[in-house]
Amino acid sequence: MPKYTGPDGVLLVDKPSGPTSHDVVNAVRRHFGVKKVGHCGTLDPNATGLLILVLGKATKLSDSLMGQDKVYEGVITLGKETSSFDVDGDILSETPVPPLSCEELTTMALDFKGDQMQTPPMVSAIKKDGVPLYKLARKGIEVERPPRLIHVYYFKITQFQTPDCEFEIACTKGTYIRSIAHDLGQKIGCGAHLKTLRRTVSGSFNVRKAYRLERILEMEIADLSKALIPLDQLRESTLTG
Fold first, then answer.
1. Under 8 Å between Cβ of 167 and 73
2. SS3 137
3. What is the mean pLDDT of residues 71-99?
4. Domains in the chain, start-ordered, CATH in brackets?
5. Catalytic residue among 8, 14, 23, 44
6. Average of pLDDT values for 151-174?
7. Measured by CB atoms within 10 angstroms of the end CB, which terminus of the chain is less buried, N or C?
8. Phi, psi of 66 (to 5 degrees)
């Protein structure tokens, strides 16, 4: 009997910390026997939150969905600079955090608003001659990365208790929040890295409407069909999102 190819539509997943985005795609593909499954916008393994999966004919809308704006929340730790700009990297330097208030940090964060050219970090999935940069970085190889135009709609420091800053940021696709964290640390003068990250919004989709991965992997095919956003509604989202 041929494998069930699955219905068409979008599945909103609340990704846990740990698995890669590709791991999530593979888990859904294997569990339901669906051949065509993809995701719209990579989340790092330690990042959580909204991961948009496209199934069947919805994979044709992948680029449109991937290009939509994003909102994230998370924690930036001041005083420690890492090789990857996040908590997974090796600590490169430790510097005392100067006396700061949440208001002062909020003022500094305002400087990140608007158009800017951002150089992707070496520890990223961008490929150089077909090889992901993070694989080169593991070998101690650093290559030139062309800067990319991004736009930050807002960057808010919502709470600060030394050394951790809680934040929320809205930005265009392809923005590296790890780099924003690193650059904030450079601006302050004590270094910083991204401690946690959670994607809450992508285009018109919100993580509040997403299903936890463990719940999805308990579903039957009939449950999956009910959980999917159908193609007609999906096309409207790509036009209005």
1. yes
2. helix
3. 95
4. 9-67+203-240 (3.30.2350.10), 70-201 (3.30.2350.10)
5. 44
6. 97
7. N
8. -65, -30
